[in-house]
Automatic annotation (TrEMBL):
GO cellular component, as recorded: membrane
Subcellular location: Membrane
Keywords: Membrane, Transmembrane
Name of the featured protein: Ig-like domain-containing protein
InterPro entries, sorted: CD300_family_receptors, Ig-like_dom, Ig-like_dom_sf, Ig-like_fold, Ig_sub, Ig_V-set
Phylogenetic placement of the source organism: Eukaryota, Metazoa, Chordata, Craniata, Vertebrata
Main location: membrane
CDD domains the record matches: IgV_pIgR_like
Domain Ig-like positions: 1-103
SUPFAM superfamilies, A to Z: Immunoglobulin
Stored PANTHER family: CMRF35-LIKE MOLECULE 3-RELATED, POLYMERIC-IMMUNOGLOBULIN RECEPTOR
Entry-linked Pfam families: V-set
Length: 106
């Protein structure tokens, strides 16, 4: 794991999660998924670089020049609390994902 981060949001609100990745994964699709690695379920992923992708309450943008991707979750609820993964390589090698612990306050 590159890192593990904890973020807190408020029920009904919006949260922005910033995930850093190793520059060797710049060309890869980026995925934000819920659950443990491996076997987490994809919520949103990039199809190409340099543009926002939207899926329901989730948005994702891959800033390849900074080696960071940003995930936005809107209309948060208690059910969103839990463990997520920011992944930059489907091999799940140790340096290719960041674990995100999300806590929602009502």
């Amino acid at each position: 794991v590159v890192s593990s981060i904890s973020v807190t949001g408020y029920s009904g609100g919006v949260i922005i999660i910033t995930c850093r990745y190793n520059r060797k994964y710049t060309e890869n699709a980026k995925v934000f998924c819920k659950g443990q690695n491996p076997g987490c379920s994809d919520l949103i992923k990039t199809e190409e670089k340099g543009k926002w992708f939207h899926s329901g309450r989730f948005s994702l943008y891959d800033n390849t020049s900074a080696a960071v991707f940003t995930v936005i979750i809107r209309n948060l609820s208690e059910q969103d609390s839990g463990t997520y993964q920011c992944a930059s390589d489907i091999s799940w090698s140790k340096d290719s994902y960041t674990e995100v612990k999300l806590n929602i306050i009502t």
